[in-house]
Structure formats: C-alpha cells, structure tokens
C-alpha cells in the first residue's frame, strides 16, 4: 500500500517514490515465466495530484525466471514494466467529507480504482503490467536452435547434429542389440537378472 497524504490534494502537486518491494505470489504467466515470489521488485513511481484523485505513473524492474520453450533450459530475464493508473478520491461533499452512499456506488464502478483513506494498492496494476511485459514464448536467446525432434538432444550443444532416415533405423537396431547384449551379461551374473527377464515377458 502506498500513502498519498504527503502528496496532498492540491492539483499539480508531484511526488516521486522509489521503493523496493517483495514480489507477490503469481507475478507472471503461470507455468511459463514469472518473477519469483519474494524476489525484489524496484518501483519508481511518480504521483501527481489531479482534481479527481492521484495519477500514478511508474516503472517496475525485476528479474523473471522461466524455461526456454525451444530447448527447455531454465532462463532468467530482466523485466521492465511501465504502468499508469488513476486512483480516484471517493465521492466527497463540498467540505471533503465522504458521502457514504455514493462511496458504495463507486465500488461497483470497474473503471475506477478508489483511494482508501488516501492509500492505494499497486499490486493489481503491477501484476497486469508485468504480465504484459513478459513473453508468452520465452527463449533463452533469439537464435536458440532447440531440441532435435528425433532424439531430443540440445542442438545448441551440437549444431551439426542430424539424422538420416537410415541412421534412425540403424540406431534402433543398435539399441536393441545393446540391450540384448546387456541382458545376456546380466543372466550370467546372477539369478536376479533372470527374474527380471521373466517379469518383462
Ligand atoms: Zn533455448
Ligand atoms: Zn537427434
């Protein structure tokens, strides 16, 4: 929660706030990339007093963690999200006192984010801005080559890697031969391996 009392209600008054807060839960795109809960989020805010309330303009900086959609390696990415939100004074009468009835109406108004006793909650705004700034399909680097569709090894580690159709069949036979060879050896090494083989059948 941020306090606007210091800013005052004189239209045109400005206040800058720099503050580091802990990231709330679920700050990001679920299962794709996000700012880990409790990690630092640097906020630079500019509060401007206007007739109807307080206009808040700001930037949030944090570090997001996720997984490359191509090679599945973990990745970390800096986030800088800009946002702007108008926090409105609850309806007041000429003397600045709240009108209780009007206040209830205001809470039904989705377009208006009310100030509560001069305080505002930045979390929903922060969440929207950060989610918008994050990639839906994060990659560890723009030219990430991803994984081999045939065998799944990372093509970043081995750019010349490829398969011919014949190679794949040969590799499968080779794999079969290897496992048979291992099976024979296990049989010779003890009764336990024999039990395993029966269970497979
Ligand atoms: Zn990657
Ligand atoms: Zn491969």
Low-confidence stretches: 101-109, 184-201
Mean pLDDT: 83
Helix percent reads 25-40%
Please identify the structural class as seen in this structure. alpha+beta
Dominant shape: rod-shaped
Rg is 30 Å
Bound molecules: zinc ion
SS field, number of helical segments: 4
Q: Report the β-strand fraction as a percent range.
A: 25-35%
Q: Span between N and C termini? A: 65 Å
Keywords:
201 residues, alpha+beta, 7-stranded mixed β-sheet, two-stranded antiparallel sheet, 4 helices, 9 strands, rod-shaped, disordered C terminus, binds zinc ion
Characterise the protein shown here:
This protein has 201 residues and is of the alpha+beta class. Helices cover 27% and strands 31% of the residues. The protein has helices at residues 100-108, 123-133, 165-189, 191-200; strands at residues 2-3, 14-22, 27-29, 33-35, 40-50, 53-67, 74-88, 113-114, 119-120. It is rod-shaped and about 85 Å long. Residues 101-109 and 184-201 have low confidence and may be disordered. Bound molecules: zinc ion (2 copies).
Write the layout of secondary structure elements.
Elements: E1 2-3, E2 14-22, E3 27-29, E4 33-35, E5 40-50, E6 53-67, E7 74-88, H1 100-108, E8 113-114, E9 119-120, H2 123-133, H3 165-189, H4 191-200
């Amino acid at each position: 929660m941020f306090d606007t009392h210091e800013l005052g209600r004189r239209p045109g008054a400005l206040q800058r706030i720099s503050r580091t807060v802990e990231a709330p839960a679920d700050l990001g795109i679920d299962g794709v990339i996000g700012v880990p809960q409790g990690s630092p989020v640097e906020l630079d805010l500019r509060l401007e007093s206007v007739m109807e309330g307080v206009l808040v303009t700001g930037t949030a900086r944090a570090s997001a963690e996720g997984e490359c959609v191509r090679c599945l390696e973990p990745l970390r990415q800096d986030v800088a999200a800009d946002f702007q939100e108008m926090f409105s004074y609850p309806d007041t009468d000429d003397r600045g006192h709240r009108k209780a009835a009007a206040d209830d109406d205001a809470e039904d108004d989705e377009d208006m984010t009310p100030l509560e006793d001069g305080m505002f909650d930045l979390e929903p705004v922060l969440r929207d801005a950060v989610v918008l700034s994050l990639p839906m399909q994060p990659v560890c680097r723009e030219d990430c080559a991803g994984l081999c569709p045939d065998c799944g090894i990372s093509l970043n580690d081995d750019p010349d890697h490829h398969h011919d159709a014949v190679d794949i069949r040969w590799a499968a036979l080779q794999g079969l031969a290897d496992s048979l060879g291992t099976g024979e050896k296990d049989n010779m090494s003890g009764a336990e391996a024999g039990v395993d083989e029966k269970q497979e059948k």
